[in-house]
Design a protein that fits this description.
This protein has 194 residues and is an alpha/beta fold. The protein has a domain at 34-165: Rossmann fold, CATH 3.40.50.620. Helix content is 46%, strand content 15%. The chain has helices at residues 2-19, 21-30, 54-64, 84-94, 112-125, 140-147, 174-191, and strands at 43-46, 71-76, 102-107, 130-136, 154-160. The chain has a five-stranded parallel sheet, with helices on both faces. Strand 1, helix 3 (54-64) and strand 2 form a beta-alpha-beta unit. The radius of gyration is 19 Å and the shape is elongated.
């Protein structure tokens, strides 16, 4: 009889999860997001990754709108020995943004923390005081740990759209599910110092 009660509890929990699946999926995504509406800053920083070009296009629009004068495009070594920034900037130009909107920032960083260390060192050299950090929504909370608590530099996170991992649809496609799962894995790993 104990197993019947256990089975009933599991069934009830599964039914509740099914009925409330969309709010649960939204909350799962929302907990990864820490972004603000863009406001005037000295520079936009486009974090590497994403791969769909939407981060750099978001930054291009910030420059076009006069929110920032230029965007620094992070570019770790990538595919075919080309820094990501060397691929991203021509992509943005192809989509109508002048090359003058962007600055290349190639590097040999392997993760968000190493990328932040290199970028922040550059910002300090240039005496930059206020930054907008552009990345995919799901990446804003984890990366904010490195960019919004810098002594002498005011950092704000800006959410770029993502082709697969958006709040209302991420669980409906394989790439979105993989992206959110990986971001939660990285979030826990970061929290535990891995």
């Amino acid at each position: 009889m104990k197993w019947i009660r256990s089975l009933a509890i599991i069934g009830a929990l599964a039914l509740i999860a099914f009925v409330f699946r969309e709010p649960l999926m939204h909350k799962t995504f929302d907990l990864l997001v820490s972004a603000e509406k863009p406001s005037k800053a000295d520079i936009a920083i486009v974090l590497a990754g994403g791969g769909d070009g939407l981060r750099i296009l978001t930054a291009g629009q910030l420059v076009r709108d006069g929110v920032v004068p230029v965007a620094l495009i992070s570019g770790p070594d990538g595919m075919y020995e080309a820094p990501e920034c060397d691929l991203a900037i021509p992509f943005a130009v192809k989509h109508g943004y002048p090359e003058s909107y962007f600055r290349h920032f190639p590097g040999h960083f392997m993760n968000t923390k190493e990328e932040a260390d290199d970028i922040i060192a550059q910002l300090r050299k240039e005496n930059i005081k206020r930054i907008l950090v552009v990345t995919s929504g799901y990446h804003t909370r984890r990366s904010s740990k490195y960019y919004t608590h810098i002594p002498g530099i005011e950092g704000h996170m800006v959410q770029a759209p993502d082709r697969y991992a958006e709040r209302d649809t991420w669980w409906r496609n394989r790439e979105g599910r993989k992206t959110v799962f990986m971001e939660w894995s990285k979030t826990f790993a970061t929290a535990f110092g891995f």
